[in-house]
Sequence to fold (456 residues):
Amino acid sequence: MRGHGFLFANYVPGTSPVHRIPLWLKFLLVLACGTASFLIADWAVAAVALAVLCGVYLASGAGLRRLVRAVRPVLPVLAVLGLFQWWQLGGPAAARIVLNILVCVVAASILTATTPIQTLLDGVASLARPFRRLGADPERFALTIAIMLRSIPFIAGAYADVRDSARARGLERNPRALVLPVFITTVAFARQTGDALAARGLGDAEDRD
Amino acid sequence: MSIILDRAAVRVAVDGHLEPKTLLEPVTLSLSERRIGVIGANGSGKSTLLRMLNGLVAPSSGTVTVSGADSVRDVRAVRRRVGFVFTDPLAQLVMPTGREDVELSLRRSVRNPRERRALAEATLSRFGLLALADQSVYELSGGERQLVALAAVLAVNPDILVLDEPSTLLDLRNRELLRRTLAGLEQQVILSTHDLELALDLDRVLVVDTGKIVYDGAAAAAVDHYRKLCTADPVPKPPAGVDPARP
Fold:
């Protein structure tokens, strides 16, 4: 398996003021940006919000390059979306929609770039704690999210590997030669992960003491 | 502190066959030496034997007990005592970086995030990995990855360490590093390997062939037995339970 170039969890260690913002406030910021994207009606306001968030991101010391890398994957989608909305609703509306989505992406990147995964998991676990009465296990909940985050790059990497080997055999136009091996690799990976978790005693039901 | 197998056997049902396939014939063993090796051909049952030791594979008949705890009824206690390292460290590292993976190991036992962090750093620095703690596990070399996996397993302080072919994916330099690290551990170590030099360092070596333990004794004699086995019979017999006449 090749080294998967990108991992979604892209924490950048640091001690900037942005790093020191408490986790709940960062959660709230992401939530607020998500809500605001429905409420902001003027593209100029969205542009200012985006500029401010980019400023916050850069203040964390994570650097312009990482910011570009965080935003790049959504750009093609945004381009298509923007063009379509321009045609349907005109320039200002299209700009507003695209800018609002970018605001959400940058806000989420601020959260992941300045929060270590363990802290994020602790946050998720404590969010799930009130549901404990209903039988929820907060630690398991957090672990599930961690495994999900880790598995996405693996599957992307598996796809890249399979595509290369299909190309080597001249099968790149055959969708079955692409989809089936990725599917099988993914199932094998899931079983392997299950074994590894079981061997380390992770995901066991919580001791009730 | 020892592992006792009492007529433990592993059989699995195979599609299209009435008889279950035997992966491991009943074995009775008492494993108490500090350094134990398991050698044998691919598919001979080494991994099955090792996986039984921490409850990853349950015996179909017989029992496996680790200092009194049954590997089926008391599987959590067994897994706390027996740490398991897989051949491919990427299969067992769940988190993107070494630090995070070691902290994940500690989540259950250490609730306070600050203590957990300190303990994770102490574990990583014990293996000389602190400088690599925040690098993606995908960016590490094979040997470094194997050491990170080892650190994540040893962070919770098991009494016994089981390693399934730990040196198979490593180059010579990394193999030496692993060998030195294992030699310095206070834990009881049980490992399977194709690396006969590594096997020669051990106190006791088991030779597994087609699901049976065919030799059990001192390292040099066991390696000798295995060499003879491979040269005398280069084409192994099909394992028991599989009918060679059937497709």
Observations:
- The radius of gyration of chain A is 21 Å.
- Confidence is low (pLDDT under 50) at residues 1-8 of chain A.
- The interface with chain B takes residues 1, 3-4, 7, 9, 13, 116-119, 121-122, 139, 143, 146-147, 149-150, 192-193, 195-202, 204 of chain A (CB under 8 Å).
- Residues 117-209 of chain A form one domain.
